[in-house]
Amino acid sequence: MRKTPARGSHTHGGERVLILSAGVGAGHNSAAAALQQECAGRSDIAEVQVLDVLQVSSVLYRALLAKGYFVLVEGLPWLVDWGYDLSDPPYRRRGPIDPWTRANAVPVINEIKRFRPTAIVCTHFLPAQLLASLLLRGVTDAKTAVVTTDYDFQGLWLPGAFHSLFVAREEARIELMALGLPSDRVAATGIPIAKQVDGVPEPARDPNKLPMLLISAGATGGDYAVSVVRQTMHMRSPFTATIICGRNDALRHRIEQLVAPAGDRYSVLGFTEEMPHLLRRADLFVGKPGGLSASECMAAGLPMVLVNPIPGQEVRNGDYLMEQGAAVRCNTAATIGWKIDEVLREPGRLQRMQAAARRIGRPDAAADVLTGLLEGPSRPLIVTRAAQKTIFAASGQRIVATDLTGPSALVRLIDSAAGSTVALLQAEELDDLQKRYATPDGGLVLRRGQARLWLRWEARRLLRALLRSDKALPVRVEGLSKSPAVPPGSIEPSTPD
């Protein structure tokens, strides 16, 4: 649990920002640290706190989620791939949080109540799902943001209530809009990464020196780095290499012995704080395409040679980088040296890949996330469970939301004063609201104290989350369908349970 007073901490009424992460791999916490760094430099933020939700959960829960995941990655990668695809459809699970997760969330809820944040940023889907529940129950009225940490969007990250959703690339934003999410709640900012420290000169690549390879074994030091280094020792192209072994001292000693005959061509390091400098001095990165690693490389204009990607998110990260021309992938250890040689020996190829990396780099992602959240809508977007059911069915059938008709078609409620979308629901759910709150111009004025028992439970839940401390909220209804809603019983895309 880390607290940082921001530059505006002396200013009365400054924002209190809580950043919730989960230590499953290093990327989620790295994104949280980047956001914390950005908060510390803003005058409108009084205090920022970072909390790894797994660190305050039970030992068993933490072990199963954090350590269990990497056990599967090492021993049963096909199962990880299957699980990723299984959990990819948005809103596959629409019920309440399971009792075990809820029990382990108690310390997080207590910290939210104690800290009293005005804004909460989630860099993992676990706290994002918890925050949705808390918004709907009225436990917090803080602005909440969900910040994805991979280039591809996975449905697990889409909660039923939030203020802002920040994705890594434009295609993910288009995907969510096609499913019915409103454009005023989803932004493509990139993945938050740490900035260069002020006052420290940024190293530049020297075109007159030999190409420098930056070979990374990851924060924990993966053994695959040994085969990577061994392969580079057979390359024909002249080069130098810096090898980062992370916190794995045994790996570092092993590689030092391996490269000893090569003299000063190789430099072997353990965990280092100098990674931002190394990224900007290197000419080619060799390693895994984790979301944060890839984002840091792209921001530094550093193309990648991808090795040993984790099935699911890292494979998809690699697909995007290769599509953009900023990476090549090695599917077998036996060709790593040859693959790097091909990049270095082809005239102009390395320079083209560097230009592609710079083009898609988003060094200001952390700043864009905070600005988007703090200056964004004050009321949350609520996606009812019925609407979630429609989105899940539409995604499975590859149907765009605007093509849906009938009672299960999606409609939006727009805050008449602010102009922001506050709810996404099924067309048939409007009946309860229109009976009580309809206005002559076709809009609605939702009012406190008029949520009678005859209202369905979901409608009462929606009112509680939207009204908060207000007595009334004028909204207008906006349909997504291209054609008028058809009567119940008409032909429409099925929405299975």
From TrEMBL:
Diacylglycerol glucosyltransferase N-terminal domain ranges (all copies): 28-193
SUPFAM superfamilies in the cross-refs: UDP-Glycosyltransferase/glycogen phosphorylase
Keywords noted in UniProt: Glycosyltransferase, Transferase
The keyword ATP-binding is assigned to this record: no
Glycosyl transferase family domain span: 242-359
InterPro entries per UniProt: Diacylglyc_glucosyltr_N, Glyco_trans_1, Glycosyltransf_28_UgtP
EC number: 2.4.-.-
Molecular function (Gene Ontology), one example: glycosyltransferase activity
UniProt KW Cell membrane keyword: no
Top enzyme class: transferase
Family classification: Belongs to the glycosyltransferase 28 family.
Name of the featured protein: Glycosyltransferase
Organism: Arthrobacter flavus
